[in-house]
Amino acid sequence: MKNDSLLFLWAKLSTIIQEASIGMPVIMDEPGDLRIETGAGRPFATVRIQRSHVGVYLLPLYYHPEILPAVLKPRKTGKGTLRFTEDADSVIDEMPALIERCRAMVGHY
User: Fold this and answer.
1) Cβ of 106: how many Cβ atoms within 10 Å?
2) Are 36 and 25 in contact (CB under 8 A)?
3) DSSP string spanning 2-60?
4) Is the CB of residue 32 less than 8 Å from the CB of residue 1?
5) pLDDT over 70 at 5, yes or no
6) pLDDT tens per residue across span 76-109
7) How many CA atoms lie within 13 A of 66 on its CB side?
8) How far apart are CA 85 and CA 30, in angstroms?
9) How far apart are CA 75 and CA 98, in angstroms?
């Protein structure tokens, strides 16, 4: 784990993503690193603590950027990556809906 001080934020984001991804295989669930795959074995979501942020990597977002709501666009740092630095960030509340949209795209990538 690269930054212990972000563990609370990682736990918050991991819980949200796991609850929205029920039924999908969890490949890795260790403090600071969560990985979820699709039923077909393709990567779906990763939540990982980095040096200065918690990164949320969503493969469906890479292929379907149009599903990202405008309120989350300031957190986007790569084609399928969102960056969070504070657990009090109000846009975290948008994550369950984004995960649902990502789940709907699983068969399309």
Assistant:
1) 15
2) yes
3) --GGGHHHHHHHHHHHHHHTTTSPEEEEETTEEEEE-TTS-EEEEEEE-SSSEEEEEHH
4) yes
5) yes
6) 999 999 999 998 899 999 999 999 999 999 876 6
7) 3
8) 19
9) 13
**Residues facing residue 54 across a β-bridge:** 49, 84
pTM of the model: 0.92
Identify the burial level of 40 via C-beta atoms within 10 angstroms of its C-beta, where 0-12 means exposed, 13-18 middle and 19 or more buried.
Answer: exposed
Please report, for the chain, the start and end positions of each structural domain, with discontinuous segments joined by +. Answer: 4-108
**What whole-number distance in Å separates Cα of residue 24 and Cα of residue 18?**
9
Q: Which CATH number fits domain 4-108: 2.60.40, 1.10.10, 3.90.1150, 1.20.120?
A: 3.90.1150
Q: What is the pLDDT of residue 67?
A: 96
